[in-house]
Amino acid sequence: MTRTRPLTGIFLDTGDLEEIRKYHALGIIRGVTTNPTILVKDGAGEGWEAIEKRIRQIASIVEPLPVSMEVTTNDPQGVLEQAQRFSAWARNVNVKVPIHGPRGGTENLRLVHELESRRNIRINVTAMMSAQQGLLAASAGASFVSLFGGRINDMGHDAKAEIRRLRALLDAFELPSKIIVGSTREVLNIVEWFEAGADIVTAAPKFLEAMLVHPYSKETVEQFLRDGQRLVPREERIPA
Ligand code: E4P
Question: Which residues on adjacent β-strands are paired with residue 13?
């Protein structure tokens, strides 16, 4: 099966179908990311049937752009099975696997390597807080390596410095993984993380609207519309 190759730009971080339709129609997103917390918040429902339906719907709306669905287990066999199941839902579904489990360990990278190299499944290694984790995930063959910029800053570290460091490392080692930076906290994060070297920044819908709409643009357009009325014949003018 031919799979979607990584693209770059903004990935919408939501499981809300209306928001996905709205922002996809604008042509400004390059993919969608979800995680279990997002799917719960956005009412995807309980049970595999409901989750499969929601992910298939998202995949169909944005096809061929990629959609990330995260594994819900820390059991190695369960991760392999879920990865194969999720990626079979649609050819643009890729699978998020955390860099390691809640107690650490090396097992997840082995699974990432196997899924990418032997099972032809595109993996997004998630929940990473440092460039050195990102380097290892990229070395293991992950298509996407996700730094959680907001959470890095929450811990008192500098997300931009980690992004710059990871960019330099991947370039130096000629590793093709795309750098995703998620966990956006402010509108400014989107542009500053791209400037620092991210290929992809994930953003909740509210950040995109705030990025787009500017009070001075509103005022400027208001002025043009007002003066534009003076250019058209009186009978065509719209009363103020
Ligand atoms: C991105 O892919 C992550 O799912 C997301 O951005 C996590 O953000 P949070 O730190 O706000 O939970």
Answer: 33
Q: How many other C-beta atoms lie within 10 A of the C-beta of residue 30?
A: 18
Q: What is the pTM of this model?
A: 0.93
Q: Which atom of ligand 1 is nearest to 146's Cα?
A: 2
**Beta partners for 125?**
97, 145
At 35-87, the pLDDT tens digits run: 999 999 999 999 999 999 999 999 999 999 999 999 999 999 999 999 999 99
Of the residues 41, 96, 206, 218, only one is catalytic, namely 96
Single-letter amino acid code for the residue at 206:
K
In the chain, how many domains are there?
1
Q: What is the CATH number of the domain that holds 182?
A: 3.20.20.70
To test ligand 1's pocket by mutation, which of 13, 94, 189 has the most ligand atoms within 8 angstroms of CB?
A: 13
Torsion sign, CA atoms 38, 40, 41, 45? positive
